[in-house]
Predict the 3D structure of the following.
Amino acid sequence: MTTIVPPKERVCERCGRSDVWDDDTGTWTVVTDDEGERLTGDPFCLHEWDINGTYNPLEGGA
Ligand SMILES: [Zn+2]
């Protein structure tokens, strides 16, 4: 039996944007660094998440 564990964090391979999963809101939240600066990356980036291809929430669901 395979258990799929959804990722809790993702990083854009293009611009370096970093998100973490917020279970409370059910959305991705932008990570902030030690100085409180949001690591939003390039706003025009198409974002190539490092989890692409390894996890698809649309597969294996209900
Ligand atoms: Zn990006």
In short: The chain has one domain: 1-62. The chain has a mean pLDDT of 83. Residues 4 and 55 are 8 Å apart (CA to CA). Residues 1-62 form one domain.
